[in-house]
Amino acid sequence: MRAIPNLAARVKRIAVSHETILLFIVMAEWLYFNSVGRHFGSLDNTFDIVRQTVEIGLLALVMTPIILTGGIDLSLGSLLGLCAIAFGKLWRDAGLGIPSAIACTLAIGALAGGLNSMLITMLRLPPLIVTLGTYSLFRGLAEAITRGTDTFTNFPASFLFLGQERWHGMPAQFPIFLLVTIVVWLLVHRTTFGRCFRAIGFSPEGTRYAGIPVNRRLALAYVMAGTVAALAAITYTARLGQARADAGTGYELFAITAVVLGGTSIFGGIGSVHGTLLGVTAIAVLSNGLVHARQPREAAGVLTGLLLIAALTLSVLLKKVVDIRSSRQTVVEH
Amino acid sequence: MKGHLRELSPAFALAALLLLLAAFAPGFYQLHPLLSLFTREAPTLVMVCGMSLIIICRQIDISVGSQFAICSVCAGLLAAMHWPLALVLVASVVLGAVMGSINGLLVAVLQLPCIVVTLATMVTWRQGLNWLRQGEFVNLPDNAQWFGLGQVAGQCALISAALILLALMAFAARHLAAGRYIYAVGSDAEAARLAGIRPKRVTFATFALMGALTGLAAMMNLVQSPQVDPKSGTGLELKVIAAVVVGGVAISGGRGTLWGPFLGLLLLVAIGPALTQLHVEAYWEKALQGAIILLAVVAEGLRNRKEKVY
Amino acid sequence: MNRLFAVLLLAGMTFVAGCGKPSDAPAAGSAKKLTIALMPKSKGNAYFISCKQGAEAAAKELGVDLLFDGPTDPDPAKQNEIIENWVTLGVDGIAAACENKEGISTALRKARQKGIKVITYDSDADTDAREFFVNQATPEGIGYGLMDEAARLIDEQGEFAVITASLTAANMNEWRKYIEARLAEKYPKMKLVTVRPCDDLKDKAQSETTAVLSAYPNVKLIMAICSPGVPGAAEAVKQAGKAGTVKVMGLGLPSENRRYVKDGVTQSVILWKTTDLGYLTVQAATALVKGDLKPGATSFKAGRLGDFEVKGDVILLGKPFIFNKDNIDQFDF
User: Fold this and answer.
1) Local confidence band at C200 (pLDDT 50, 70, 90 cut-offs)
2) Helices (H) and strands (E) in chain A, counts
3) Closest by Cα among A116, A94, A84 to A231
4) What is the DSSP letter of B274?
5) What DSSP letter does each residue of A221-283 carry, written as one string?
6) Which residue of A has its CA nearest to C70?
């Protein structure tokens, strides 16, 4: 019985140290680009970074609980595209007002998330494969609805304000992002739902035996993800001024990268929402900073990949060091 | 037959599709276009063999598309420098094996999660290649096409090579110890270790093998046209993984054969030409592919409800 | 506690950094080297690579810094991000090929507000978002040109198919609109049987063309409107043994199609002198920044290329050029 508090302490130590490393990485990036780029550290640029990262940030935030449960959702980017098209179609062809179109789109996102969770929980299918299928299906539906070519534009200025203008000095999408961040953070870190997510990640069967309705908790995670993906579709459309079938292509990979970079284990059970935020920040700052450092776009991709491997390797090595230290302690204790 | 229940679903689906085509679009069954189709997809079959083993080993590798592109471009550059093709082939396979080994090292030795590692290597290699190549094609010398054999002979050679490789690997997976080790490690790595198998080595070898097969596939693709497109291989990993999954290989590892994925690949690559034959618009293709993958997965899930051990 | 500290630290850092750097327009020093930022629709595209070559030549001649950046795949959202980054970076002039007209116009208008000179090339934005548009050919000109050439090749009657990049590619959809309009208006005896996407991949174009050839046995011509599609389609036609019977044409680069044109598999490749387009664009952008080119001008002298006609706010490069067996050797891009 002595081993369990030890395990908890060990786990806690690792979780904290991974995020601290990431924080140092973000600071290092910031300082470097500040020195190299003439306008990098300015408020304008910071707002640029924020505005451009909102959609990926939203997906990463909501991917965190899913990965905590040991699952994954590859279909979020495609769902973003499908919701964007649905929004456009509801507004233009079905004649709905913007607020009702938004409400319906969020509902569609929730339903799609529900589809994922139903296949995963009722049929006990691996999330990777289910969402691989819905990744193609959602994108395919978006393309089929628009015949590939149709796009929706000419949205009213009041709607475009959301994506393109400043509200009380900060980018208009920022309050939305902040709200979702707070909600997800509270959900994961301060409610029993969050603890359920981690428990499911550690051991789904054990959690089930402990009396927790695993299927309902998983449904919550995936439905929330679908709804937020729909929300991201709205802000994307507002930012671009256009709803397209290929919106959000590749975003899920970015989101997964940010989540894993932030210290969440892909196997589930360990992780944090603020880690994900740091991960998103690290990638966004890197990408933006490289532009200011006059490096080509591809450098961002290469460096992000290397950063991911480096961060993971570091984390594993640290864990080994901590393990060795703790096992020595255990030996002494016993 | 009992041991092959998993392969029944893709077999039925494929049979259904073929019957549909026979009834409504018999134009599908012309020799030359089918030969072209099989030749085009022979490299993909080679990669499907490798990916089946990876998934049986309870891993996954989403970087194979980027590996394919790098091997293609490097092989193309070597061929353009007038290296003998046999040497270019060896170089491509070796390069692929090296890239696969990097994945293997990170996954097996450092024990990093495979999906994250291969995600990182996928992005790094693809963007690195874009950076260097900037989309420029590689022009090949004339004698490179079809290994100099001429079109029909070349097509037959490539198709036979892929099928022979499939048969050999299916045999090896079932009857050679090395093959059984992969199943063992995929089923339960700890139990395998206790039984005397070295899971780390098996995992590493599987990734390296996948890389080598990717290099081979790249070469097989290279000889089919006089230019190399550095964007080739985009979306390839998805196609290959989908074929394996539709073919009844369990993502949880330890189960499945190579024949199922073969049928799965046939099914998935037939959809595009089938739609064209049926004069259906192109924008339905992705939705259909997604639906097929989901159906295959659901079928697997229904099968599992009986034997489920989570 | 640890986490709270971290979050506060990050916020504090941002605030401090933000206070430290005023984000206004670049300093008005005339001795400073000018920076012109050039954006392609996507980077890994040989068409824009050749534009870049011309652009670099012009930058060298004029002594300006050339920033060449764009999304790696055509992605309108990323184009906007890059423009916004450039605005913050404080470049002097921006020349962009626009993937998405509406979206990018907002970003370009913001750039103009900050005093940066904006022109577009290859594909236009909204007219109030830029000062000039360097046009090599209108979508109408391209669409009509393609359709007319196709008609010429098959004597204005028969079936043909189109290979496009992806069904969502905005510029190709525009061209298709004009192709279909021209078809309906002038060539009643011709029929467009299908449009297949190749995702900008040569190999996929090859498979799609093979499928089309077998599904539509009466097809007489393949029109590939994305540049990797032309060699892909040509190879498919050649392997099907139909070289010469089924004509191949499209929009592409001479270098990628040379061997097919010479072998008679591809009959015509339509393009324009992309290196000249890049050269002219950078010349125009620099002149605009320096004040040598003003709205209302009717002609513009672009370095070694000579004079170009300026119609309103459009600088015309010229008409699409048709590369075929007779002239393709003269070009090396």
Assistant:
1) confident
2) 13, 2
3) A84
4) H
5) HHHHHHHHHHHHHHHHHHHHT-B-TTTTTTHHHHHHHHHHHTT--TTSS---HHHHHHHHHHH
6) A297
Hey, are the CB atoms on B273 and C214 less than 8 Å from each other? Answer: yes
Cβ contact (<8 Å) for B33 and C210?
yes
**pLDDT value at residue B41:** 94
CB contact A232 to B (< 8 Å): no
Q: How far apart are CA C226 and CA C217, in angstroms?
A: 23
Query: Would you call C239 an interface residue with chain B, using a CB distance cutoff of 8 Å?
Result: yes
Can you read off the two tokens belonging to residue B158? 């490539």
**Interchain contact B149–C (C-beta under 8 A):** no
Nearest CA in chain A to B103: A309
pLDDT digits 0-9 by tens, A83-134: 999 999 999 888 888 899 999 999 999 999 999 999 999 888 889 889 989 9
Most confidently modeled range among A287-296, B293-302, C250-259: C250-259
* Type of residue numbered B81: M
Mean pLDDT to the nearest integer, B223-228: 90
Residue C72 contacts B where some CB pair is shorter than 8 Å: yes
Using the beta-carbon criterion (under 8 Å), do A256 and B119 form an inter-chain contact? yes
Using the beta-carbon criterion (under 8 Å), do C88 and A48 form an inter-chain contact?
yes
Question: Average pLDDT for residues B211-216, to the nearest whole number?
Answer: 97
Mean pLDDT of B66-87: 94
Q: Is the predicted pLDDT of residue B206 greater than 90, yes or no?
A: yes
CA distance A180 to B15: 48
Q: Best mutation site among C42, C167, C201, C214 for testing chain B: the one with the most B CBs within 10 Å?
A: C214
How many Cβ atoms are within 10 Å of B46's Cβ, its own excluded? Answer: 27
Which pLDDT score is estimated for C137? 75
Q: Which residues of C touch A292 (CB under 8 A)?
A: 85, 88-89
